[in-house]
């Protein structure tokens, strides 16, 4: 007996035997649905035998036989009615459990988000992406055959998506390209640290999406529900289907605020803020200006996160402001880091440690934020130090800057494109999908072991564009991504430690050392961050002008 729970009310399983019914009752099952027609297999017990055993055990039964591969809309409706009418928990079974899982997915289509349905069935061992269109269509077979079709479809119109569209246009002028994204506003997210430090205004980091998508690229203003890579199709919310010849996936990642108990209820008040949200970054600066004494917490969750230095940047700019106002001596700064190092590339650590010392900040490693009580101003951390028993600590605060846990978006994690951890599975040099050779990914959503930064996307977009152009011409990949990422660590107002590195923590400086020594705080790096990078982002990167980002030729290993 192989029970696979897909919800609190329903489990599915392969074929059961009459002798299993008593054990099912002991497991708490109160009803059984048979989805396997009698006589399908020589060694298969009949429904009548299962029914008889269920009657002895006091369980209710329902017979909804489904021919393999032929689940109709009426079948799904009948199954849904059975779920409502029968006492639960319910076990549904067929030969392998797949038909039962399919019926449950279609029956739940109007009640649950498609990502939740795909996740629940995937966790039970059943891949429902093959019926994603029907789930997206409320559980019914779509009748619309007027699907749109493009040479290139790009999922996501963030820094990566718009940049790769623009870079493709510089290489190929006769392609039909579409970008799928439901957002009206595009944000320059690297600027939010500066907003939280009182240097930029929030409105200067936002522009309308329509003003940025390259001319000639079709904008599909919708969310993605699922992927059908075997059919070269993307299923949108509402069950519209977009077909592609080649697909680029770059929707960014998900800020998982809800995974920290109480956090969503207190964001933007009670002294709890985050530079990871456009509407909250100004609140960070407000709190910094108002604070004269007390305890300030700065949190960092487990990796991966976008811009691994951002939690520290908030700390440094806040501490620098307090230092300039001569109140720093009265403020207890605590950096609560779920990891075990200050920064992942050791060459930059000495400079950062000197500022930790300057600001008299305490660094608490292996402390992961798990709960917040905003009104009481208390934060709870799970502490998992090496060679020590796990424990929890609760810390009072007057101000807390939170960096939220981060994951791949739900519709990515449950898709056939994802690896075991939920990120899009790519070859780290060419950024081509490991399984589907007409799919590429870039930006925060893919699983290459690089820093998730806008600077990384700036280097990745030309690589993807170059390799797609080569593929169109019938050639192998020609460009490679070396893992480049950049993290301008704002250690004080007017100085930055410009961390630039690639795969394995190899330093990849963009400038000669006599101009910018990235391992030390410099005013030149601050000028770059404050004055040059924003216009480079808006006027070059998003327009396909690959300034200092031309793709590197792919190195072929010796045979």
UniProtKB/TrEMBL annotation:
One Pfam family name is Pyr_redox_2
**SUPFAM superfamilies linked:** (Phosphotyrosine protein) phosphatases II, FAD/NAD(P)-binding domain
This entry's Gene Ontology molecular function terms read: FAD binding; hydrolase activity; quinone binding; sulfide:quinone oxidoreductase activity
Listed Gene3D superfamilies: FAD/NAD(P)-binding domain, Protein tyrosine phosphatase superfamily
Q: Which UniProt keywords apply?
A: FAD, Flavoprotein, Oxidoreductase, Quinone, Transit peptide
**Residues annotated as domain Beta-lactamase hydrolase-like protein phosphatase-like:** 2-110
- Which residue range or ranges hold the FAD/NAD(P)-binding domain? 150-264
GO BP annotations of the record are: sulfide oxidation, using sulfide:quinone oxidoreductase
- Which coenzyme or cofactor does it need? FAD
Asked whether the UniProt record includes Oxidoreductase among its keywords, one would answer yes
The keyword Heme appears for this protein: no
What name has this protein been given in UniProt?
TIGR01244 family phosphatase
Q: What is the lineage of its organism?
A: Bacteria, Pseudomonadati, Pseudomonadota, Alphaproteobacteria, Rhodobacterales
């Amino acid at each position: 007996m192989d029970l696979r729970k897909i919800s609190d009310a329903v489990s599915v399983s392969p074929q059961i035997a009459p002798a299993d019914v008593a054990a099912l009752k002991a497991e708490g099952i109160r009803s059984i649905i048979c989805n396997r027609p009698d006589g399908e297999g020589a060694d298969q017990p009949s429904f009548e035998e299962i029914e008889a055993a269920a009657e002895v055990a006091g369980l209710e039964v329902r017979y909804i036989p489904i021919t393999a591969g032929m689940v109709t809309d009426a079948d799904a409706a009948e199954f849904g009615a059975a779920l409502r009418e029968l006492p639960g928990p319910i076990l549904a079974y067929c030969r392998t459990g797949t038909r039962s899982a399919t019926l449950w997915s279609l029956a739940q289509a109007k009640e649950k988000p498609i990502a939740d349905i795909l996740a629940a069935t995937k966790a039970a061992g059943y891949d429902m992406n093959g019926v994603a269109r029907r789930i997206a269509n409320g559980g019914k077979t779509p009748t619309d055959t007027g699907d749109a079709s493009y040479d290139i479809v790009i999922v996501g119109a963030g820094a990566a998506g718009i940049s790769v569209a623009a870079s493709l246009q510089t290489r190929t002028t006769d392609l039909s390209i579409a970008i799928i994204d439901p957002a009206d506003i595009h944000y320059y997210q690297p600027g939010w640290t500066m907003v939280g430090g009182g240097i930029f205004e929030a409105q200067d980091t936002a522009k309308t999406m329509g003003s940025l998508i390259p001319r000639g690229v079709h904008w599909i203003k919708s969310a993605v529900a699922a992927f059908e890579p075997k059919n070269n199709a993307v299923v949108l919310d509402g069950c519209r289907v977009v077909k592609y010849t080649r697909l680029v996936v770059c929707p960014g990642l998900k800020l998982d605020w809800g995974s920290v108990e109480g956090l969503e209820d207190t964001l933007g008040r009670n002294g709890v803020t985050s530079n990871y949200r456009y509407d909250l970054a100004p609140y960070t600066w407000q709190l910094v200006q108002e604070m004269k004494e007390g305890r300030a917490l700065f949190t960092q969750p487990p990796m991966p996160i976008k811009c691994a230095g951002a939690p520290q940047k908030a700390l440094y700019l806040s501490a620098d402001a307090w230092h300039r106002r001569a109140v720093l001596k009265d403020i207890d700064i605590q950096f609560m880091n779920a990891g075990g190092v200050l920064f992942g590339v050791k060459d930059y650590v000495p400079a950062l440690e000197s500022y930790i010392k300057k600001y008299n900040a305490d660094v608490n490693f292996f402390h992961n934020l798990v709960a917040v009580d905003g009104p009481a101003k208390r934060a709870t951390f799970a502490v998992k130090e090496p060679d020590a028993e796990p424990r929890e600590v609760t810390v009072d605060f007057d101000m807390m800057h939170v960096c939220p846990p981060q994951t791949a978006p739900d519709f990515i994690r449950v898709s056939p494109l994802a690896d075991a951890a939920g990120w899009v599975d790519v070859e780290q040099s060419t950024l081509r999908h490991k399984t589907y050779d007409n799919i590429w990914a870039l930006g925060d959503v893919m699983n290459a072991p690089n820093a998730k930064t806008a600077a990384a996307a700036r280097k990745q977009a030309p690589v993807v564009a170059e390799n797609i152009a080569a593929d169109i011409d019938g050639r192998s990949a020609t460009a490679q991504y070396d893992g480049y990422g950049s993290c301008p660590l704002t250690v004080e107002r007017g100085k930055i430690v410009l961390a630039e590195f690639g795969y394995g923590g190899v330093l990849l400086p963009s400038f000669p050392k006599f101009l910018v020594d990235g391992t030390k705080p410099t005013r030149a790096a601050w000028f770059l961050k404050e004055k040059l990078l924003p216009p480079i982002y808006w006027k070059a990167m998003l327009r396909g002008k690959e300034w200092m980002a031309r793709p590197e030729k792919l190195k072929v290993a010796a045979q």
